[in-house]
Amino acid sequence: MKTTFIAIALGGSMSLLALLAGCQAKAGPKTPVPVKVATVETNSAGIGSRYSATIIPRTEVELSFKVGGYVDELQRQRGVDGKMRDIQEGDRISAGAVLARVRQSDYQVKVTEAVSQATETKKGIDVSRAQYEEALHDIATNKSKLAEAEAAQVKAKLDYDRAAALFDLQSMTKANYDAAKERYDTTNAQVAAARAQIQMVEAKAESAKANISVFEAKSKVAEATVQETRIPLGDTALRSPLNGLVLQKSIERGTLVSNGTKAFTVADTSAVKAVFGVADVDVPEMKLGRVLSVESETMPGKEFRGLITSVFPAADPKSRAFNIEVTIQNPDFLLRPNMIVSLTVGAQPRLSAESVIPLNAVMKAKNDPNGYAVFVVVEGGGGQVAQLREVKLGESYGNTIAITAGVKPGDRVITTGGTMVNDGDQVKVIP
């Protein structure tokens, strides 16, 4: 029974009604309570279930800053007067466009410092490599000198050995012997000096090579720091991720923002979704891919067609209804977010005409836990009065329900504000 769904959905609202009614009974209304009403209508045979749905964007995104600072730039657009102005709600935007920018100077300083440090480390690498190349050249030069000194040493050694032998045989003078010995000692000293020089330049080469490694490591850190500082600099620009329009704007020039501050809500409305709830007994009719006709009171005679693209697997815990999403192509942007539209699903034949009212006009009866009631607005006491009537429910059709007893076509029932009035209270009907 669809009335079972109605009972579950309205059970909680009756408790709230009783509490509010008790409070107002003590204080007494001082002024008429504002309410909204709907006229009881008659539905003839062959009319399908009709639902009210809310339009939401296909994609909606909240844009927040990643860095803090003062907003010093907003996207400029041409207004209706032809003059340029800051972006505002309702403006159309394109993907990648910079919508706002935080002052960059603080972040640019950090980038400049990091780049300077990276440049210095690169210079250190270049200097160390030059020193290393110079040391390698000196090593080669000194090795050549060592080879010459060793060759001279070998010759001096042979000359000395021969002079010593002759001197022992007293076949050489003391002066010639001393000269041969001096040349030999000199070549020994030259060889030792060349070897010492080689060791020294090899040490310089190793030091320069070590410095290259140190500066290369520092350079990697410096380059990483440059990249790290450029990220927040880039994040000073807040860009749109999609083509669409601005639904909400939360900042102005000069606003001080921090990381995570919400700036805009943007949406893609080239396609929209009509969202509505159905009772569990109606879920089998909601097949994915089914085409539904959508209408709006703001555009009489204009029909939109959409496909059922989502049927929620679980009921809403409060309303006990299953949410359905119908995706509608919206190339002319006629359907706007939060508009109310209506959908007709199927055609359920009826044996006779029925009185139907909106589902949100029905509440639990005070004196009968299993009964239902509505507030009807009647003339009385020089004004409009809310009159509580018990009703009997028939079948539900989308967002409406048939009433078999208690009201008649033409009666006005309260749809909004019923929980704030008691039987006999004066009310004021608002649009």
Account of the 3D structure:
- By secondary structure, this protein is α+β, with helices and mostly antiparallel strands.
- 35% of the residues lie in helices and 34% in strands.
- It contains 3 helices and 23 strands.
- Strands 1, 2, 17, 18, 19, 20, 21, 22 and 23 form a 9-stranded mixed β-sheet that branches. A 6-stranded antiparallel beta barrel has the order 3-12-15-14-13-16. Strands 9-8-4-11 form a 4-stranded antiparallel β-sheet.
- It is rod-shaped and about 160 Å long.
- Mean pLDDT is 86; it is low at 1-26.
Q: How are helices and strands ordered from N to C?
A: HEEEEEEEEHHEEEEEEEEEEEEEEE
Poorly predicted sequence stretches spanning 5 or more consecutive residues:
1-26
The amount of helix comes to 25-40%
The major β-sheet equals:
9 strands, mixed
